[in-house]
Amino acid sequence: MSSNKNSKGKKLGAGLLMGLLALSLLGFGVEGFGSARQTVGTVGTRDITADEYARTLQNDLRALQAQFGQPITMEQARLFGLDQRALEQLIDRAVLDTEAERLGVSVGDPTVQAEIIAIPNFQGLNGTFDREAYRFALENSGLTEAEFETSIRKEIARSILQLAAIGGASAPAGLVDPLLTYQAQTRDFTVLTLNAADLETPVGQPDDAALTEYYTDNLDAYTLPAGKRLDYAWITPEMLLDTLEADEAELRAAYDARAAQYRQPERRLVERLILPDMAAAQDAVARIAAGEATFEDVVAERGLSLEDTDLGDVTREALEDAGEVVFALTEPGIAGPVETDLGPAIFRMNAILAARETPFEEARDELRGEVLMDRARRTLGDNLDLYEDLLAGGATVTQLAEETDMQAGQIDWRPDTQDGIAAYEEFRDMAASIQPGDFAEITILADGGLFAVELVEELPEAPRPLDDIRTQVVRDWQNAQIETRLMEQAQALRTEVEGGTAIDALGLDSLRFADLSRSDPVPDLPRAVLTEAFELDENALSIVSEGTRVHLVQLHAVASPDPDLDSTQQIRRALEAQVTQSYTQDLFGYFGAALRDGLPIQINQQMIDAVQQSF
pTM of the prediction? Predict the structure, then answer.
């Protein structure tokens, strides 16, 4: 038991340290706020500085940007709660620091040194600690060595407190055993599926009386939701294109400005592997040439993956000194070794992308469209004040269209309307929010267009006329008839099986499943079939409908998990890990909450706002 606890402690401590390192080193570019006394809050007697808050917030912001693959504004970050999360992290750290100091929990210099030396970011190409890399990283993060080493010392102390609070947590067998039974139990069952082709006679067309009755009985399904009748005026860049023209000189200038798009030099798909020295690089090339190793083997020997070596498609100039040898290859292969700024390197060229140039004449139409679209957007931007002034002067949206190039319209908008101007999300949002008495205002569309809208009247719910949706109602009636008749047929078959006939002897196609767990797939069947099989007693039957397909399900056997199987043991270990993790999170949450209750916490909202405005 003691060895397991030690192992868990080392992993947990390493995770916390790397979290601190990410916090300290990923916050590059945060401007300092001048003095450590500029605080966003205090916990007991400990200050939370503006710089700490800025670094933490920027780290969380970059993580969110990486997740979505696009820039995130501070306003959007606040919607995700990043501002509060960053502050809570710092409050929790200050609370733990206070408790560690009270208990006298700390570590000596050798422990701090060992942790720093083990951090990969501070290691050179040979895998040993590189003081220059250490100094450079801290310099870019705005931290001194003393500040960073103090933060490491505090983080280790916090991890010791955390381990003390959760070290005894484990998953109780009384909870894991029923979860294991639920997760790993299996079922043997048969499914007989009926569809429209199994009906004795096909479903025909309803007469007017039957169709009207079905329509009336299901009127809710054919009722339009409440909406609004809206007057609007709008204009988009496309509406202005016919009024604009671009001369030859302007198109030529646009072509030259997009030279990188229309004149692409030859490129190569390249991977680069940095070696410790030239001798090692030469040896790697020789081994690859002799067939003793592959490029992948050499990459793996360096403890890297192919993703670490991938340079993508690059030009000769981008490769600098290596460009000549790589571009000398006429087919995929190995080039080098070459001395680079990062050290001796070998290159693998995987493909040749030929130079490509699109003549001006071929690009003319595309350029004209882009130039005119840009000019149209600028024109609309220039006219924005005019439109706003007219509305401010009391003009209605109809008058706005009469006095400008905007076009007027009226729409009966409901939440499912997405035609015409309602295809724009900005318009739908405005339509949903507008209230009686609201003044019209100019809103910008995603494509650079502009619109203003006024509420004419509220529209109540309204049934769609049967004649307008007759085809849909006929189809719905037919599907309902198919389901009703299939359910009757399935019930008759169920009665027959309950009377002693084997389900696979009914003369209809059926599928037999064996040893299926709750998480196993059931091809071509709805998930409800598997769920129903796990609800049945042995030999019991049930009917599952999915509209125009109906399934008769019979359960044959229930098998409890075999504790000696590797698969069962893997599930048990996974469940124990999940339960233990949940326990430890709850325990540490209670521990932190108890500590927070005993400390005064003050927040400087003005400084928090100043930090956020700096992003």
Answer: 0.54
CA distance 111 to 105: 13
Same topology between domain 2-168+593-613 and domain 186-218+470-559:
no
Provide CB contacts within 8 A for 92, sequence distance 6+.
Answer: 592, 596
350 closest CA partner among 331, 332, 323: 332
Tell me which residue of 497, 522, 258 sits closest to 371, measured CA to CA: 258
For the ranges 37-51, 149-163, 387-401, the one whose mean pLDDT is highest: 387-401
- CA 564 to CA 6: how far, in whole Å? 28
The per-residue pLDDT for 221 is 94
> If one looks up domain 186-218+470-559 in CATH, what number appears?
3.10.50
Domain boundaries, the chain: 2-168+593-613, 186-218+470-559, 227-245+361-460, 266-354
Q: What is the CATH number of domain 2-168+593-613?
A: 1.10.4030
Q: Which CATH class is domain 266-354?
A: alpha beta
C-alpha to C-alpha distances, 246 to 250, 259, 425, nearest whole angstrom: 6, 19, 31
457: Cα separation from own chain's centroid: 40
Alpha helices (H) in 244-359, listed in sequence order: 248-257, 259-262, 278-289, 295-301, 306-309, 323-327
Q: What are the backbone dihedrals phi and psi of residue 338, each rounded to the nearest 5 degrees, phi first?
A: -135, 140
Task: Print burial letters for 310-340: b (CB count within 10 Å at least 16), e (below 16).
Answer: ebeebeeeebeebbebbbebeeeebbbbbeb
Task: Judge residue 20's burial from the number of C-beta atoms within 10 Å of its C-beta, 0-12 exposed, 13-18 middle, 19 or more buried.
Answer: buried
The predicted-structure confidence for 70-120, as pLDDT tens digits, reads as follows 777 888 888 888 889 989 889 988 888 888 888 888 888 888 888 888 887
* 8 A C-beta contact, residue 463 and residue 224: yes
- Specify whether the CB–CB gap between 83 and 56 falls below 8 A: no
- Distances in Å between the Cα of 480 and the Cα atoms of 140, 194, 221, 274, 338 are 69, 14, 13, 68, 74
Integer Cα distance of 314 and 311 in angstroms:
7
Q: Each residue of 500-549: pLDDT tens digit? A: 999 999 989 899 999 999 888 888 999 999 999 999 999 999 999 999 99
Please tell me the predicted confidence (pLDDT) of residue 302.
Answer: 82
